Amino acid sequence: MRNENSNTETKRPCSSKKEIGIKENKKLKDKLEQQEKKVEFLEREILKENLIIKEIEDEEREKDEQCQENICRLAHNIQELEKKMQNSTPKLGANEESERMTRKDKRSVSERSPQQRTLKEHLKKITKTT
Question: Which of 3-17, 39-53, 71-85, 88-102 is most confident?
Fold first, then answer.
């Protein structure tokens, strides 16, 4: 009988070791599942962040393209304005330039700038009183 009891006693620890192993295995499987779920969640989050980054980069690229278009348009407009300015103001010859200068000197007091006018009037007042 002792032999049978000793066998059953030895079997119990083996079965309890199996139970412990099964419990540990289950815990490890649960942990693994949780970590896999966490990994999946993090992968989804990374994908979302990458999409957001891509959208931002696309918007920046569009803005850069618009800026370049605007710069080109402005440069073209400036060139056109410069051409118009060159065409609208003919260059004066030497005779015309000297004639314009003499006309400038012959202007009346009222045609001159306000500062020149006040100086002339002030000089007239001084000369009248003396």
Answer: 39-53
**How many whole angstroms separate alpha carbon 49 and alpha carbon 36?**
20
Structure tokens, 116: 């020149």
15, 22 in Cβ contact below 8 A? Answer: no
Angle at 112 (CA atoms; ends 111, 114), nearest 5 degrees? 115
30-86 pLDDT, tens digit per residue, is: 999 999 999 999 999 999 999 999 999 999 999 999 999 999 999 999 999 988 888
Query: Can you tell me which residue has the tokens 């192993």?
Result: 21
The residue with tokens 């499987």 is 29
129: buried, middle or exposed (CB in 10 Å: 19+, 13-18, 0-12)?
Answer: exposed
Rounded Cα–Cα distance for residues 100 and 108 (Å) = 15
Contacts of residue 109, defined as CB under 8 A and 6 or more positions apart, other chains included, come to 116, 117, 120, 121
Dist. CA 75–CA 82, nearest whole Å:
11
Q: Are 109 and 116 in contact (CB under 8 A)?
A: yes
Tokens of 31: 């942990």
